[in-house]
Amino acid sequence: MKITIIGTGYVGLVTGTCLAEVGNEVMCLDVDTRKIELLNRGGIPIYEPGLEDLVKRNVAAGRLHFTTDVAKSVAFGQVQFIAVGTPPDEDGSADLQYVVAAARNIGRYMDDYKVIVDKSTVPVGTADKVRAAVREQLARRGVDIPFSVASNPEFLKEGAAVEDFMRPDRIVIGTDDARALEIMRTIYAPFQRNHERLIAMDIRSAELTKYAANAMLATRISFMNELALLAEKLGADIEHVRQGIGSDPRIGYHFLYPGVGYGGSCFPKDVQALQRTAAEHGVTLRVINAVEQANEHQKQVLLNKIKGRFGDDLSGRRFALWGLAFKPNTDDMREAPSRVIMEGLWRAGATVRAYDPVAMHEARRIYGDEPRLAYADSPMEALDGADALVIVTEWKVFRSPDFDAMRARLQQPVIFDGRNLYEPKVVREAGFEYFPIGRH
Ligand SMILES: NC(=O)c1ccc[n+]([C@@H]2O[C@H](COP(=O)([O-])OP(=O)(O)OC[C@H]3O[C@@H](n4cnc5c(N)ncnc54)[C@H](O)[C@@H]3O)[C@@H](O)[C@H]2O)c1
Ligand SMILES: O=c1ccn([C@@H]2O[C@H](COP(=O)(O)OP(=O)(O)O[C@H]3O[C@H](CO)[C@@H](O)[C@H](O)[C@H]3O)[C@@H](O)[C@H]2O)c(=O)[nH]1
Fold first, then answer.
1. What is the pLDDT of residues 133-158, one digit of tens each?
2. Residue of 102, 266, 350, 391 marked catalytic
3. What domains are there in the chain, each with its CATH number?
4. Which one of the ligands is nearest to 121 CA?
């Protein structure tokens, strides 16, 4: 099948590449000329395990193309996936300008039947807006060309995006159009060979399913973060509690890790967008509102521990920071907790020396030559002369460090661990003051 992907970011590039990998001919469009030029030179704009090889292989096989030419990309695919960003507007609602612009472009240039698929995370009712934008353009041109609109929300996680796309838990398709559903079934057939994973439903339910999934996962995290705060006060250990409840199959082990608050480009914005949608319809989401409030509080918890130990005025102090990306295996720093923590440390007068296996280039892009932020070439180098170590991202490379070597490099043997990487007893026996989350 010939497929066009509009928006070549984390979702668009992974979707396009994986669809090419199973034999489709794919053209990825982006308005960002630098991104497309880089891809056409054989480069890759994001760090995502396994993606680079897959892109190279499919480009070499002639199945994967990158362009900034809108007319060409619209003409190319019978199926047009919209995978552009839907960032938060000032009031927290999803900003649909890029989705609507993509839809208008399709209407402006299409000459034959198209299936237009919303893959971006979009509020309920967006498919109607996409349909209206296409119709408006067709009417302007004075033509009547048939098209279908479907919702196909994406559930991939950054850092495991290729794996998630190639082996999905489920494929949600929202459409009221039999022809579009049949085409979507054909596209996804290679991804569900051992059992049926495609769940077909109406468009509005599909749109809401995406927000429901993210809000549910965010709820589990905020729930555990709150219990971790309580466990600390009670002298209980949240790690034992996590195992104790996760073993119940009705609860399960996933997404029960307390930490520095959820971040990334999805949970914070999607929880807020759901709140806005509900407010617009006169519904109060009491649980979801509390989830967001708890997360805002959680982002300050590690900072408060640091101030509790060193005082509110951190002038002249330097902290080693392990981890800049919002989670391991990505270079994405959108809504990363590291940013809140670093900026809080700076406000209190401290400086930071950070190490991250892949996100330091992204931090440089965001912070430029910020004098209060230095970078280290290794985790150990970040420690040299620092007043304490602050762990923000649970990269594997931080999991089994040489504690003796660490003690020798730090000015003071103090660790603030926002990800509970170590056994408190082991770290304390190695001579450290250790401040984990919800453990004693
Ligand atoms: N990142 C994730 O893990 C993830 C997972 C599931 C769903 N989503 C959702 O998918 C959507 C895309 O997210 P992302 O992280 O890939 O965003 P991104 O910012 O990485 O990529 C979006 C791309 O769209 C391009 N673009 C904007 N307007 C365009 C237009 N009119 N025509 C062509 N290209 C255009 C931008 O230049 C950018 O390269 C969002 O709605 C997001 O919520 C993201
Ligand atoms: O037990 C946990 C699990 C995650 N997190 C945090 O939650 C955030 C999000 O993590 P994760 O969900 O792994 O990464 P994303 O790439 O943001 O993926 C989420 O958001 C995507 C975009 O909508 C969805 O497609 C995915 O299904 C959904 O997991 C990160 O800050 C994590 O550190 C925790 O604090 N504790």
1. 999 999 999 999 999 999 999 999 99
2. 266
3. 2-201 (3.40.50.720), 211-297 (1.10.1040.10), 299-435 (3.40.50.720)
4. 1
